[in-house]
């Protein structure tokens, strides 16, 4: 069998029933007898990271098992990253697997799972491994208490069952109409994985630089915000209003969800004023941080820790702005610009118990898996999105010459097939949510969820190339609203900020006139449905036992909008939108990058793993800057928009 098959099998076994001791004899043997410091030649750092973690372990300082875990808890994150550092220093798989198996039995389960996921993602040794969907490894973070309770009783009574998951809230709560978006398990995987691919705690000393991390932070959350507003349009809801520190938080949230260990996620009632949170921040500090960031935008520069200034009114500016707003370890001055996004997540998570009187566990906002359930997530991100908009609005609009791709024209844009949205039914296993017992056999226990989906379709883009030779072109496809929720036609300048990116791809265009066909399935914005944990286990076991190869490369990256959510839900009578296509000079856009220009097909929002982002243009180009005069866009032949209709089949 290939080494990939063995690695996949090891990872499957390590993640099986993480709240219990492993049942696999080889892992049991390692957990008992392996010494992380026995042979330090297996590490790049001669065991320095392993020494640190072993000292914490021997001093009994590590968080106990059967306790909640949150990445936003500084000490818990520190512990998880100690294990990540050990795995990341391993030169060979033996070292990676044995350390994972050893610390699996010693560390908190949440810390272990997090470290293992980021370890597989960022270590070269993880190439080829498909991480199982987190909703089957830690199901408590993806479903609600009712379903978990049913899973327990199915297990106790030995009756197999499939349980419907309903969206949080009732019809009395208008926000419930769009809960299918914030609670979509695939969207939650996208969000949590993006933050694992581009962690705020990342330092380049771990091995490489994460290209355009700060800008991608802006773009991914801008797109989440725009997509959420799109869903609201078809559900008769106003766009999300931004959060303000000095105004009430209108929507409360009752998660009705429980930790595996740690009780229920706290509730936040409607219409509360922001409270200072003990040990986290004062509301006033947040306002000061916000002011400093707005000042940086107005000045056009930020001030680094040593006092020197860094120009941000330049193409790299948005990246630095993302770094300071999140903030990540790339922030040039976290002391001064604070950590607006991360602290706001914790502030919102704690509003139900701001002074720690009730010793509640962290709120849903304090986990990337659960944050989008809470309507305040989108308020927070609208607020930050508007800060980024203030920055991009400080740039001069693109001119005709900036936008034109001389010799290339888009003659026509059409859709092959109908644009139809619908809800599908999907099942995933809850078996890892319940405990095993010597005497109680596992029975099949599944959750059944409704998920937004759409019919496959193909873009037909007719392009004329009169340059005289083949030329690489970048196709940038967006879907934009035509009207707001009151039926008022939007100006292009209003519309552009609300557009969602459907695809971005590079393709050679031969001389003459040609129609380019591009399937919705190939979008670089999306990822396909993930294989289930059961199927990953079966495939790895078959490959290992049969001595065959295992190629799961199509599923290797799980950062990306779920393919089935590429289109926003429409109405049964149909809704019209603008399909916007810009074709730009691919040679210039990809200058300095090599490769097949496909990059595994998930680069638009998630970059290329371990490499530079393949497109030199700003993310969102050419719609990210002000458009005071629409005629500039109408006057360039390489940009075209057509009206398309999307219909929802209930
Ligand atoms: Cu996020």
From TrEMBL:
Mg(2+) binds at residue 21. Disulfide bonds join 90-95, 480-499, 559-606. Residues 374-385 form the Tyrosinase copper-binding domain. Keywords: Metal-binding. Residues 588-601 have a biased composition (Basic and acidic residues). Glycans are attached at residue 164. Cu(2+) 2 binds at residues 341, 345, 381. Residues 588-613 are annotated as: Disordered. Cu(2+) 1 binds at residues 191, 195, 221. GO terms for molecular function: metal ion binding; oxidoreductase activity. Belongs to the tyrosinase family. Hemocyanin subfamily. PANTHER family: FAT-BODY PROTEIN 1-RELATED (PTHR11511:SF5), LARVAL STORAGE PROTEIN/PHENOLOXIDASE (PTHR11511). This is Hemocyanin. It comes from Panulirus japonicus (Japanese spiny lobster).
